[in-house]
Each structure stands twice: as C-alpha cells, then as structure tokens.
Amino acid sequence: MPKPKGHMHQVTVTARKDGDGFSFSPDSQVWSGASGHFAFNKDDHHMRKHDYHLVEFDIDDQTGEGLKFPRSPEDAMWVAKVHDPQHPTCPDGSSPSDYSVIDPMCVCDDGERLIVRNENPREEDWSFTLNFEKTSAGGGERVSWDPIIKNGGGGGA
C-alpha cells in the first residue's frame, strides 16, 4: 500500500470587533458559507481512502486585541463528535476533547497559525472550538469561535 498523503487546505479566519464581542469570518474552499460549516470529502480532492486532510488555520486579527492561538495545540482547539446533527454541542474546557479523527498538531508562526490533521475516515459531523488569546492586555483572556466540520469520507483505493 502506498504511503498516506496529506492534502492541504488553507483557512484564513478574520476576526473583527462586533459590539462588545467578536465575529469570525472564514475564507477557504472548504468553508460552506451558506450552511455555516466546513465540508471535507476525499472524492472532491481526488484523495485515496487512507489519505488525510491537513487544515491550516491562519488568524487575520482586525480587532486590535492581538489575537493569537495559545501555544499548546490542545488549548488552541477543542474537538467533539456530534451525536445529534440537529443540535450540535460545541466543546468547552470543561469536557474532554476527542482527537481521534481531528487532531490539532502544531501552533506555529508565533501563534498566528494552527495546523490540524483530519483523518476523515467516514461520513460524520464534528464540532470544534478554536481558542484565541488576547495578547494586547498582557494575555490570559480567551476568545473562542465554534463552527462545525462535516466529514464526507470517500476516497479511492
């Protein structure tokens, strides 16, 4: 069997101030803006069954707060399998994350980039939370965004 290969997907996440809170706008070929989720299907990218997706999240901070990913990949992204697609629950720091399919691997470029591996072995939904730290006020305060990943599986032999 040939060695598995990764297929890279870039996601720029633009953060803006929105009243007293924050808004996040992703820009990527894998973002479905109309549905409000990320969609991955190995057939769409001519991948083999045992290949995987690499997702590169880049923060475009337009808030003035100096948003960065925390140093630890597991602090930068919490992940949970969605059991009820009609009522997905996004993970928070109080529950353990499930990194068996979607695994945050590396925070790099001084906290401006997070690299994530998505095995996408079958059709299933995953919720996740991306966490950012405000560095402008000495750090410590966290800002989060919690979209959904819809894995479509697929892939040829």
Question: Can you characterise this structure?
Answer:
The protein has 157 residues and is an all-beta fold. Strand 10 (123-134) and strand 11 form a beta hairpin. It is built from one helix and twelve strands; from the N terminus they run E-E-E-E-E-E-H-E-E-E-E-E-E. The chain has one helix at 73-76, and strands spanning 6-18, 21-27, 31-32, 37-40, 52-61, 67-68, 77-81, 102-108, 113-118, 123-134, 142-145, 148-152. The protein is globular, with a radius of gyration of 16 Å. Strands 3, 4, 6, 7, 10, 11 and 12 form a seven-stranded mixed sheet that branches.
Helical stretch count? 1
The whole-number mean of residue pLDDT values reads 92
- What composes the largest sheet? 7 strands, mixed
Query: Which structural class matches the secondary elements?
Result: mainly beta
